[in-house]
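Quick one:
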Amino acid sequence: MNEEITNKRLISGTLARHMLLCVAEYELIKSGQSKQFKTVKSFCEYHKFSHQNFMKLYHRYRQHPVEMSLLPQKRGPKFKTRRIDLETENAILSLRRLGNNRYEIRNILLSKNQIVPCATTIYNICKRHGLNRLGST
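Output:
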């Protein structure tokens, strides 16, 4: 396990240094001083990455000039950043304990003018707390 983490750091560091050299070469191409490449297209073909992906990394590096900004970033939302607030979740759980299903819970919350998640989100909250099947408890 520890060896795996060391290998990931080594690969990440190597990739970041390679991309740093690519950024420097790109800036030489744009200024017309590159001895190896005449166009950005030939540069991208040589390094086997798309122009769009390189430009994304390049602009990210220009905003934050550190090696880590040259590494691929995690896609999608960060863990638990799209969760509903705790007050609404507690209201959903208390209504579920009274025997309401997800559609009834949604309608009750709508009538109280609260922030109302969709029925699927209500079901997922109940499932996370083990309340998705009332008959088994």
